[in-house]
C-alpha cells in the first residue's frame, strides 16, 4: 500500500472542501445574478457592485477579529456554517416573493466564496514546501475545480425544471459537507499556532493592513489583483449586458445558458489545473509565468476591442477566468508560501478577499459615476480592460523581485 505524505493528505482534504464550496457557488452565482437582473435590470449591476467594498471590508474585519479570538479552525467553521445560514435565509425570502433580498444574495455570493477558499489556501500554504507546491498546486485547484464543473452542469440541466430560486437552497446545502471535511482536516493534522499578540497586532492591523504595507511584494500582488479584477469586472459587465439583450424575458433559459457557459469554462480550467499549471510552474521561472498571463489578456481583449461581439467578448471573459482559476492561482500562492503566519492568514485575506471584491466594487462605482455624467460605459468596457492588462504587466517585475523575501519560521 502506497503511503501518502501527511501534508499531501491535508491538501487533498482541503481541496475536497473547496470542491463542495465551488459546486455550491455555481448554483449561487447563476441564480443570484439572474434574480437580481430580473428584479432591477442588468444596467444596475455596476451600482450594486459599488457596495461591495463596504461589505467586504466589514466582512474581513469580522474575520480578523474571529481569527484572533477563535483561531484558524473555529473561524473557518463559523464562516462556513454562517454563510450557509445566510444563504438559506435568502432562499426563504425569495420563495416568499421578496425582490429586496436579491441584491443581498448577489453581494453575499461575491463575498462568501472567496472568504472560504482563501482560508483553505492559508492552511495549505502553511503546510507544504515551495517545491511540493509547484507540483501539486495545480492538481489541488483541479480537484476543487471539479466541483465547479459539476455545479455548472447541474445548473444547466436543473434550472428550468427546478426553477432558479431552488438553486439558492442547493448552494446552502453544499456548504455542510465542505465545513465537515475542513474541520476533520484541522482536527487530524492540527492548526498553525497564532503568533503572540503585541501592541502592533491590535486594532486595524487585525485584518493584515500593516503586514501587507511592510512587504513590497504583497503590495505589488494587491495592485495586480486590483488590476485583474478591473479587467474581469468590465468583461463581466459587457458580457451580462449582451446576454440580457439576447435572452430578454427568458430568465430560466438564460440561467441554463449561463450554466452551460460556466460548465465548459470550468471544464477547461480543471484540465489546465491538472496539466498546464504543474507543467509551467515546474519548467519555467515564476517571473515568466506571471508575465505570460497579462500578455495573453492583452491579445484577447485587444481582439474583442477590434471586433466586438458576444463571441469575442465571451471568449476574452472565458480565457481570463480559465487562467485565473488555474495558472494564476497556482503562481499567486507561491508568493505567500515563504512568509509568516500573519502574511498567510491576515494579509492574504486582505489581498485576496478585499482586493478581489473591492476592486470589482470600485469598478462598479466608477461606472455608475460616469453613467450619471452621460457616458455610455458599455462602449468603453473593453478599452478599460486593455489598459488594466498593461498595468498588470508592469507590476509583475516588482512582484517577482527576489530581494527582501522574508522567510516563514520552520
Layout of strands and helices, then pairs:
Layout: H1 6-40, H2 45-49, H3 52-95, H4 101-125, H5 130-162, H6 164-189, H7 209-213, H8 216-246, H9 251-274, H10 276-283, H11 286-306, H12 310-325, H13 327-336, H14 341-372, H15 381-399
Helix pairs in contact: 1-4, 1-5, 1-6, 1-9, 3-4, 3-6, 3-14, 4-14, 5-6, 5-9, 5-10, 5-13, 8-12, 8-14, 8-15, 9-12, 10-13, 11-12, 11-13, 11-15, 12-13
Nutshell version of this structure?
With 410 residues, the chain is an all-alpha fold. It has helices at residues 6-40, 45-49, 52-95, 101-125, 130-162, 164-189, 209-213, 216-246, 251-274, 276-283, 286-306, 310-325, 327-336, 341-372, 381-399.
Walk me through the structure.
- This protein has helices at residues 6-40, 45-49, 52-95, 101-125, 130-162, 164-189, 209-213, 216-246, 251-274, 276-283, 286-306, 310-325, 327-336, 341-372, 381-399.
- It is an all-alpha fold and 410 residues long.
- The chain has a single domain, classed as Up-down Bundle (Growth Hormone, Chain: A).
- The longest helix has 44 residues, at 52-95.
- Mean pLDDT is 83; it is low at 199-205 and 403-410.
